[in-house]
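Comment on the following before class.
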Amino acid sequence: MAPWPGKSRRRRRKDLRPRQIDGLGVIELVRTNDLVMISLIEGLLTQERVPFFVADQHMSAAEGSVGFLPRRIMVDSEQVARARRVLRQAGLESELRHG
């Protein structure tokens, strides 16, 4: 039986490709524990006026400020190509999630 009416049971994704969050049109662009890298990427995207948000930013309270939970930079699916271009031009291609 499905967990909710009209919803099918889904298998957990094991791949590491960026994924679109159900219906929100938001793509994971970068996942890292490096707070300096997060700040750099925030500055680049802000400068280029690419809308984004940092997910899991406030999880340090739950994890005890150890830094083992990575922060994720999320971008609207319509802006992902532009955001990727900005990071590539800045030499940060290795930080991008594949996909």
